[in-house]
């Protein structure tokens, strides 16, 4: 399912619910945890994130609020919202309970079964409880986290909710996961932190599945990797966002914090950014260019990011503080808004509503480019060209194929694609 205009600055309507759950919803108090849990399960089922009875039963049984006591009940049971449980000194989230829709989608992708042996990288307790509920007492659930605050809390919550059999491990999953691997490997590995690399593929059992949110060129997609000879084939890349992995697996993008943090630019590699010059660029003259490329509310443009990142290594992301940044930049997407970045200039996507000739006509929004810095005109035109090329040649395409290879494998350059080389692996994106 596309995250397209859900992330854009476009008004959304909430469709009338037309479902009933496994539970008898009408007999439950409207604000009780049981009623909210039933509503959540019904919504996730209706929207296609829960697709099997095993996952439905697990979500219906495990009390989500017990793993997020700091959140209001309605927030804990929101199908789409993340519950942040810990932040660092700068205010960035370092631990959270992931959005229920994404947890359900990843559990379904893992193809869990009774008796399965499962590794979870990144803990918190709730997702491990869901896994344990599905695999049963005859299965194995190992959850690993580098933060002792997280593991202590997860172990306490799991014991209190009836899942003491979950093995909670404190340590850096980059190294310690192998120590706890069962003979023959794990039937599923589910990574619940944003990873830049994937050192766990060799721990998969024959026929096992690895579900991981993998970052490349500042983009994150949740992949389901399955063994295909001497490589892993990536299935169903899903737009998502996760708290970044810590420890040996961490990778810091280049970041420029502008206007005292009101606007941030990130790029994975390339020449060092001149933060002072970019700050001056943001405060200076802006170029504007409209592309003629439009989108409706429910239209997907997930592949746009991937295509631009394929052809331009200046691709990055821009974020704005919801309050302090709104007068400085007008972003097409609240999250994961594409930008081309050079050491002293940048150009990003914006949108405006297309004027309609009558009320019955479909509402559409046009993508444009705003750019700053001495090279603003050139960058704006180049980003415009990328967008128009994607719209003409790739918009209706199924998207690229992904494969994951070991770092020492000989991998030919794709005719149309890009290889993202990492410490342990090489992620190959190929357009066919």
Automatic annotation (TrEMBL):
Key words, A-Z: Cytoplasm, Methyltransferase, S-adenosyl-L-methionine, Transferase
Major subcellular location class: cytoplasm
Compartments, record wording: Cytoplasm
Molecular functions (GO terms): methyltransferase activity
Keyword Ubl conjugation included in the entry's annotation: no
One Pfam family hit: PCMT
Source taxon at top rank: Bacteria
Enzyme Commission number(s) of this protein: 2.1.1.77
Listed GO biological process terms: methylation
PANTHER family the record matches: PROTEIN-L-ISOASPARTATE O-METHYLTRANSFERASE (PTHR11579), PROTEIN-L-ISOASPARTATE(D-ASPARTATE) O-METHYLTRANSFERASE (PTHR11579:SF0)
Family, per entry: Belongs to the methyltransferase superfamily. L-isoaspartyl/D-aspartyl protein methyltransferase family.
Record protein name field: Protein-L-isoaspartate O-methyltransferase
Organism of derivation: Nonomuraea roseola
Designated gene of the protein: fxlM
